[in-house]
């Protein structure tokens, strides 16, 4: 199975704990402020629609560039291996 650098980065404890903290803060802010919640929901729907449209439009380009993406992903994974080796703090949650 091909490694995906984005998935690897998101699985780093320092990144995943930061994302969880941001998600909790975002959710609690929406719950505490009804006006903010309605603005956020409009924004979220817009982002989802724009993302779907962008993916549909980019699909032919992505298919043509797949070999280049594979090479770039492999290079990025090797770079991440090096970073993980040199910076042990990446393996710890933010609070540590």
Any descriptors?
flat; 96 residues; 4 helices; single chain; mainly alpha
Write up this protein:
Helices cover 82% and strands 0% of the residues. It is mainly α. The longest helix has 31 residues. It has 4 helices and no strands. Helix 2 packs across helix 3. The radius of gyration is 18 Å and the shape is flat.
Average pLDDT, all residues: 89
Structural class: mainly alpha
Kindly state the percentage of residues in helix: over 70%
The residue ranges in which pLDDT falls below 50 over 5 or more consecutive positions are: none
- Total count of helical runs of at least 4 residues: 4
How many β-strand stretches? Answer: 0
Shape: flat
What summary fits the major beta sheet?
A: none
- Report the span from N to C terminus: 32 Å
**Rg from alpha-carbon coordinates:** 18 Å
Give the SSE string. HHHH
Strand content: under 5%
Helices, strands, pairings?
Layout: H1 5-11, H2 13-32, H3 34-64, H4 66-86
Helix pairs in contact: 2-3
Pfam families: Perilipin
Protein name: PLIN1 protein
Family: Belongs to the perilipin family.
Concise structural overview:
Helices cover 82% and strands 0% of the residues.
């Amino acid at each position: 199975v091909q490694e995906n650098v984005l998935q690897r980065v998101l699985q780093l404890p320092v990144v995943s704990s930061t994302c969880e903290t941001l998600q909790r803060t975002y959710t609690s802010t929406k719950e505490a402020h009804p006006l903010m919640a309605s603005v956020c929901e409009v924004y979220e729907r817009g982002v989802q629609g724009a993302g779907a449209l962008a993916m549909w439009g980019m699909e032919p380009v992505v298919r043509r560039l797949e070999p280049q993406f594979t090479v770039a992903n492999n290079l990025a994974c090797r770079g991440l291996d090096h970073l993980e080796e040199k910076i042990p703090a990446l393996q710890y949650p933010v609070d540590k």
